[in-house]
Amino acid sequence: MVQYTPHNILLTGGAGFIGSHVATRLVQEYPQYNFVEGDIQSSDLLKYVLEKEQIDTVMHFAAQTHVDNSFGNSLTFTMNNTYGTHVLLESCRQYGKIRRFINVSTDEVYGETSLGKDKGLTEQSRLEPTNPYSAAKAGAEMLALAYGSSYKLPVIVTRGNNVYGPGQFPEKLVPKFTVLASRGLQLPIHGDGESLSSLGWNEETSWEDGLRQTVDWYLKHGNKDYFDNGNLELALQAHPYGAPVPSHEIDAYASTR
Description:
The chain has helices at about 15-30, 45-55, 65-70, 75-95, 130-150, 175-180, 200-210, 210-220; strands spanning about 10, 55-60, 100-105, 155-160, 160-165, 200, 225. It is an alpha/beta fold. The protein has a single domain (about 10-170, about 200-225), classed as NAD(P)-binding Rossmann-like Domain (Rossmann fold). The strands form two sheets. A five-stranded parallel beta sheet has the order 1-2-3-4-7, with helices on both faces. The protein starts with 8 loop residues before the first strand and ends in a 30-residue tail after the last strand.
């Protein structure tokens, strides 16, 4: 891929958990922005935005991410995460002016990992998604890379670890476990308890140590197709019993997302 300096960036999913942190950082450094509320499944909207804003770079965050929801509503995940990505890719292909397309994926495409057995995973490791969410994200990856091969769309795929931090929905693993532990309640787990999840602080994943590297290096130089960002271990020290907790109810299931 040819080195270049991005000028007009389309960031999808800018109102989501990670995407909103990236959007906030971008706005702080580059205050000229437009917010568009829409659906990435709408090719007409995407073509309009690409042309109107003369987009040269795409950072694709938009996705349904809650794993447990994917079991009960899997078609929604396929439509948003796979089909929506396909519509975006095709819109970019027809537009013909994209210098870099960053598809933000997940390390869950590698499948479940037992304790201590994730150390050897690399960007070239086999993809073995085990739930509808990760399967839909893996499908989106394959489409993005296929567009790179078939149409020479300059694609980069990132696979971030599980993320936690400010603004996260309360049903996600870290805020949920924190609330349950502070109440002295049981912490629900999936499987036999031997699965291992790497966790990354949202500010690191979204900008400082993760995607900023992608923006500052892979975005401009683009010398590889995959990029795994983050590999942090979390030691969670729960609040003491009786500490203040949110007023909302916590469902009796857990998700690493």
